[in-house]
Each structure stands twice: as structure tokens, then as C-alpha cells.
Amino acid sequence: MNHEDPVLLHTEGRVRHITLNRPRALNALNHAMVARVTEALADAEHDDSVIAVLITGAGERGLCAGGDIRSIYEDARAGGSESMDFWRDEYRLNARIARFPKPYVAIMDGIVMGGGVGVSAHGDIRVVTERSRIAMPETGIGFVPDVGGTRLLGVAPGELGTHLALTAEAVGAGDALLCGLADHFVPSQRLAELTADLAGCGTAAGIEETVLRYAAPAPDGELAAHREWIDACYGAASVEEIVDRLDNSGVPAAKQAAETILTKSPTSLKVTLSALRRARRLGSLEAVLDQEYRTSCTAFTRPDFVEGVRAQIIDKDRDPRWSPAALAGVTDADVALFFAPLGDRELGLAAASGPTD
């Protein structure tokens, strides 16, 4: 095993370990890593000596901060198409994780954002710690939540997912559990011990039982106390009405949320709200991923994506110049374009998977 490989694989007992290994880049995913993880899952699925898979991130900072946004930015600036190929394989991996027939354990320690959510939150056993910071931050870079994120947020209790999607807010362990993005809280200092004990499991059922032995009450989150105004405000039919309700609710935290939302890409906000509402009706993860592939491919070609990444990640001036600059400038027809069929470029996961939940 070459420790410079971006994905490390080894087996402890009957558990196959997958470690994302780009710690200096916060384990950001690139195409080669997606291919490597996909191959590892295929091998583990057909290896009778393996009863479970465990995915972790190298280093102390997090599981995965998302896709390799700098390379996607350069591809977009150059008018390329490599990023679309990357998403095609990444979304297929997300679907494979969700349907993996053996326990898939994700240690969501530290930063888990964007693509990091995709390789963890679709798993069977999702563990968070006191260091976890989980987010789908796409509206802040002129993009739209993907990797199945619109499904995950769309089915969160009430309108919590809408709040997280539009504000791009990161949440800790307690709120991740509340929103259904994670299953168990384990203190970070016990992760090594947990991993060692998982190696001693002889059955798939023993994997869940072992994690439960280490699970503890999570630190209190913040969202539960705000459910009333979140559900009331974000249940509106449009982003404009959501912002208006937040602004006029008389709740300081709601007013702050409105101010945060108005710093995001107006186009991304409107497409994201529509994507969430549509995801709730689509049913299967595969159908949602098909939809997200459409929105991602379209966002990739729009000016807000390059401008958002420039402002947040490249130049870091935090002053994006969105186009259009205001919500009123984004029409229903503009939003509809993001959901238009792609013809022979469709992802086609729903059709390939057959009947689903």
C-alpha cells in the first residue's frame, strides 16, 4: 500500500477500510478517487470474507470537504467537459453506496461537505463526533446541492433541509442527527477504539451492535429551538416570499438567515428551492441523482459558478458579482432550463435501476 495514494485500502478482521487520503486538500474528491472507491466497493461486495466497509478521512480535519472545486473551476473556465464525466461517476457511486448490500459505516468526523456528504450520508451507519461540521454549501458558489443532497435535505423534518440548503449553513452532530444526516454520535477520542472493535466482528449484525455500544448522547444542536419559525417561513412558495417572511418574523435569528440568503447566488437559490421540492416527489435516490446531474451540468456552464468559486476559493474576496444580481432577475423560465432533459447525455440511473422505493 502506497501511503501517497489518494485512497488507501486495507482490511482489518472482516472489515474493508477505505481512507480518503488527501489531507492537505481536506480529502477533496477527484475523478481518480471516485473510481478507486467504486472499485473497492465492487471488490468488497463480492468478497465473502468482507462483512462491512468503513470509510474515513486521513488527517485530523475532516472526512471530505467536497469535490476538487479548483479543478472543476479551471475546467469550467476552459469550457471543458471533464467535470461532467466526474459527476457522472460520482453520482453513480452515491447510488451504489445507498444500495450496498453490506453494512457501510461512515465516520463523519470533522468537515464533511458537498461530495463528502455523498460518500457518507447515503450509508447504513453514519457516525458523527463533536468535531463534525456538515454542510451542502453550493448556493454560496453559484452551484446547486448535488450528490443526493437535495433528497437528504428534502426529507429532513419540516423545512430544516430548506433552511440548510438556502443558507448553506454547516451543522454539528446534534443537528445532523435531527436532520437525518447521521445516525449515531461517538466522541472522537473513542473512534480508534471503535475501529479496533469493529475488526473483531464476525457478522454484519455485530457491526451495528458494536457501534451502538460506543454511541452516546450528542451535544445539543441549535435547530430544534428554531423549528417554529423555520417551518413557518421556509414553507413559502418562492425564495422571495421566504426571505420576506424571515425578514418580518420578528425573530433575530430569522432576520439573520434572510441576510445570509441574500448573499448567495439568486439563480442558485431559486433552482435549489425547486430542486428540493421536486426531490420530495421523485421518490428514489436514483431519480433525484438524475435530476441533480441536469442541474449540475447546467450550473457548470453558467457565469455564477465560476464567479462564486473565484470569490470564495480563488481570490477569497468574498464579494461575488452574481448575474442576475437579484432574485427578481431570475425568471421561472431561467429556472426551468436547469431541469431540461439532456438527451443522450442523461445520467439515466433511475431507468437502469428499475423499480425502487
UniProtKB/TrEMBL annotation:
Pfam families: ECH_2. Residues 15-339 form the Enoyl-CoA hydratase/isomerase domain. It is an enzyme of class 3 (hydrolase). Keywords: Hydrolase. SUPFAM superfamilies: ClpP/crotonase (SSF52096). Its EC number is 3.1.2.4. It catalyses: 3-hydroxy-2-methylpropanoyl-CoA + H2O = 3-hydroxy-2-methylpropanoate + CoA + H(+). Gene3D superfamilies: 2-enoyl-CoA Hydratase, Chain A, domain 1 (3.90.226.10). This is 3-hydroxyisobutyryl-CoA hydrolase. It comes from Streptomyces sanglieri.
